[in-house]
Specification:
Strand content: 5-15%
Radius of gyration: 17 Å
Structural class: mainly alpha
Distance between the termini: 34 Å
Largest sheet: 2 strands, antiparallel
Strand order of the largest sheet: 1-2
Number of helices: 6
């Protein structure tokens, strides 16, 4: 029997009523990495996505198309196919913690060009990626952003 978890979503509705939703979580959700919600809010506590459930845009911009090529060549080995994680070497990028309001596109550029200290996940520090230019990183960010939008992260 799968355990039930109470997901409290305190959403202020017009009448000021809080909404409470029950969700059922299977064991595979618990095995996927999570961010510390105390530091980053409840949306960040979502597990890394199931790579098979990540949807791609039906059509991509030219920037995102070329970003996908760069991502597949330089990033997927750590961040997983379609940015879904699951490699045990890097976090998923199609995750609420990487929404544009918390990690603007410049964060992706900085991480690719200069590396970044581990601060949300426990995968260790990310090194700079040799051969990735600022333009490549901006295209990669476009690719990830377009996937995020299709998957409800804006």
């Amino acid at each position: 029997m799968k355990p039930l978890h109470l997901a409290l979503t305190a959403t202020m509705l017009a009448g000021g009523v809080a909404a409470v939703a029950w969700t059922q979580t299977d064991d595979s959700d618990r095995a996927r990495p999570r961010v510390n919600p105390g530091m980053h809010g409840p949306a960040a506590a979502a597990p890394a996505p199931d790579p098979d459930r990540i949807r791609l845009p039906e059509q991509m911009s030219a920037s995102a198309y070329f970003g996908q090529l760069s991502f597949d060549e330089n990033c997927a080995s750590c961040h997983g196919a379609k940015g879904a994680g699951g490699t045990e070497a890097g976090p998923p990028l199609v995750h609420p913690i990487y929404e544009p309001g918390h990690h603007p596109d410049g964060s992706f550029v900085s991480a690719a060009l200069s590396g970044v200290r581990s601060h949300h996940w426990e995968f260790g520090d990310m090194p700079a990626i040799d051969g990735v230019t600022e333009q490549d990183a901006l295209r990669i960010a476009s690719y990830i952003r377009e996937i995020q939008v299709v998957n409800g992260i804006e």
